Amino acid sequence: MAAEHDTATPQPGANAGAFDYSDLTAVYVNCTLKRSPETSNTEGLITRSRAVMEAAGTRTSLIRAVDHDIATGVWPDMTEHGWETDQWPVLYSQIMAADILVLCGPIWLGDNSSVMKQVIERLYACSSILNERGQYAYYGRVGGALITGNEDGVKHCAMNVLYSLQHLGYTVPPQADAGWIGEAGPGPSYLDPGSGGPENDFTNRNTTFMSWNLMHLAALLKRSGGVPAHGNQRSEWDAGCRFDFPNPEHR
Questions:
Q1: pTM
Q2: What is the per-residue pLDDT across 49-107, written as a single tens digit (0 to 9) for each?
Q3: How far apart are CA 149 and CA 113, in angstroms?
Q4: E strand spans, 50-154
């Protein structure tokens, strides 16, 4: 899905051309509660981040999770466990095709949305899958978070997302989150006229830093062959190898 950049979107600095990240791909998962074509304030902030990445050559795509029939459960394909439909396997293949995953969503009751929680649960359901080197399949990819809302909770939500991603095997770079909150209470949302969201320097700075740090680390990992496969291979552990632990039984 192509990015839609408005004229207020900050443009890359003069030195941005020194970095060619055309070998990278990024997928943004918008965990808004609003189905398309309803306006998503979270998508407004996503658009800013995508603009930074695409200017550096990274190809980006966007998934609005609520538009898809994602089953609830803890298995990779819930149609094998009684559900009639489950579009998660298709979305999972899109996520696994990307070097960068950014989970994005609104704040509700000071916490992540129910859709965000469901997406993280389904990512977790696939966490036992291994790559060709016997590591967990998410190894070698990087993750970040974008949060919007008009109540407290940006840092709490981002902590939950980033912890979840690293626990699954994603690598999290420095300052891998950004967010915007308006005045606490039923005030304007990010894209509402007069909200100040798109012009907020703090949010724009953090969104820019996050986008570049995700690309920098993703490129380092991809171009160096990923996370070294020693001491972290589930297949070897299951075969009896204990790496640097004393293990006289292992041959």
A1: 0.91
A2: 999 999 999 999 999 999 999 999 999 999 999 999 999 999 999 999 999 999 999 99
A3: 11
A4: 59-64, 100-108, 111-112, 142-149
- Residues whose CB falls within 8 Å of the CB of residue 99, separated by 6 or more in sequence, listed in order: 24, 25, 26, 140, 141, 142, 218, 221, 222
Rounded distance between C-alpha atoms, residue 17 and residue 243, angstroms: 43
Report yes or no: 104 and 147 within 8 Å, Cβ to Cβ: yes
**Could you tell me the two tokens for 99?**
């070097």
**Residue type at position 135:** Q
The answer to whether the CB of 56 falls within 8 A of the CB of 131 is no
CA distances from 145 to 20, 82, 101, 226 (A): 23, 32, 8, 21
The pLDDT assigned to 185 comes to: 75
Q: What is the arithmetic mean of pLDDT over 35-46?
A: 98
Residue located via tokens 């394909």: 77
Contacts of 127 (CB under 8 A, 6+ apart): 136, 137, 138, 168, 169
59 backbone dihedrals φ, ψ, rounded to 5°: -85, 130
Q: What pLDDT does 16 receive?
A: 62
Torsion of CA 127, 132, 133, 139, to 10 degrees: -40
Neighbours of 35 (CB within 10 A): 10
